[in-house]
């Protein structure tokens, strides 16, 4: 009886750690629907690959780089010091807007980033 009660309680307390992770096909569809396929000469495959290596398809990922004093947000780990919240805020968005799994603001901001002189090299 005690064992089953403990197992039941543990089952309620355990939450999948990858709940926010999107599947590769979902990411590809949302990026394509957002107009990133062949945007600025970069294929949809380039964008999907970037999303995987930056966040492992986690649109809610936040990474803090203490050595270089920036934080990366969302699917593409867009940096706060230039693109959102503080600093220059070139995307004119809150960094928390870049954590939305529907990716609308993320895609808009990524388009601005890639239009800069470094292109995808900005990542």
Automatic annotation (TrEMBL):
UniProt cross-references to InterPro entries, sorted A to Z: Glyco_hydro_22, Glyco_hydro_22_lys, Lysozyme-like_dom_sf
Gene Ontology MF terms in the entry: lysozyme activity
Any Pfam family the entry gives: Lys
Keyword check for Signal: yes
Keywords tagged on the record: Disulfide bond, Signal
Signal peptide range: 1-19
Cellular component GO terms held in the UniProt record: acrosomal vesicle; sperm flagellum
SUPFAM superfamilies, per the entry: Lysozyme-like
GO BP, sorted A to Z: fusion of sperm to egg plasma membrane involved in single fertilization
Membrane-crossing residue ranges in chain numbering: none
Family: Belongs to the glycosyl hydrolase 22 family.
Name of this protein: Lysozyme-like protein 4
